[in-house]
């Protein structure tokens, strides 16, 4: 991607990197006016509000002799003018943290993405970093997308990870490793998308009835209301297999899943993010099935077969609606789709 500095000592002290569109180079006096004009409210919103000297500090670091022990700060040049700056600061033996600023009027053209990609290559190949990372305010969607396009993968959320005046803000942690597949490789591109795109929680449940057409419900330890047996699908696990695994773990019974009866979208509720709940047919069994159950005391207090009136009394309204919709699907027709139990 970028051109590595030549092996002479002068180039190593003052790296100049280019991909043919942007150039990263040390600061000079002519950059200061453009930087001062370009430091607008957008930059002040996302940079450290505790320091009124963010630009001054960056210029000072950029004009010092680059020190691999500390990192490097470089101007982003495009068409002969300074359009922003990028930095990598060493935070551990083999880890660096990225910072970047694009001046007013220079955004939206992919210049910062190119600059970060160049700096990442330099950080790995010349400064010896094994990992570079960025901590971006959770609401700064432009910078999150930019970092992702530069090859950083979203790793998680650091709660209250950034100080903004008197307030502490949540930050998204993104990182790239020296041995990650290059972004230009199909596998590397797919891994980036996989880390960036949203993931939705999946829950698999089973509708089990007895010979009196009552529905098996579990009284759970972590909430007051009752629910169908089942649980959260693990990453990479088949929802079809997950529900039988959950019944084995929580109730000690082996019941293979039948056909899918219902897909129910659950909106955010009570501290939970939204989820998709899949209800599978567990068939009809003698009520003596209860006698074979060994409940996991950490999650299940008890299990009972319940009439519809008992379902409505013991479950939340949306759980009761989901069960009624699943029963309706069982009576005829194919699988249904509902949202919070409503068609």
Automatic annotation (TrEMBL):
User: Where in the numbering of this chain does the Nudix hydrolase domain appear?
Assistant: 198-328
What Gene3D superfamilies is this protein classified in? Answer: 3.40.630.30, Nucleoside Triphosphate Pyrophosphohydrolase
N-acetyltransferase domain sequence ranges: 22-179
Tell me which domain of life the UniProt entry assigns to the organism this sequence originates from. Answer: Bacteria
Might you report a single GO cellular component term?
Answer: cytoplasm
Which InterPro entries does the UniProt entry name for this protein? Acyl_CoA_acyltransferase, GNAT_dom, Nudix_hydrolase, NUDIX_hydrolase-like_dom_sf, NUDIX_hydrolase_CS, NUDIX_hydrolase_dom, Ribosomal_N-acetyltransferase
- CDD domains on file: NUDIX_Hydrolase (cd18876)
Q: Which UniProt keywords apply?
A: Hydrolase
Keyword Isomerase applies = no
Q: Name one Pfam family in it.
A: Acetyltransf_3
What GO terms are given for molecular function?
A: hydrolase activity; protein N-terminal-serine acetyltransferase activity; protein-N-terminal-alanine acetyltransferase activity
Q: Which family does it belong to?
A: Belongs to the Nudix hydrolase family.
| Protein name (Swiss-Prot/TrEMBL) | NUDIX hydrolase
Query: Top-down, what is the taxonomic lineage of the species of origin?
Result: Bacteria, Bacillati, Actinomycetota, Actinomycetes, Mycobacteriales
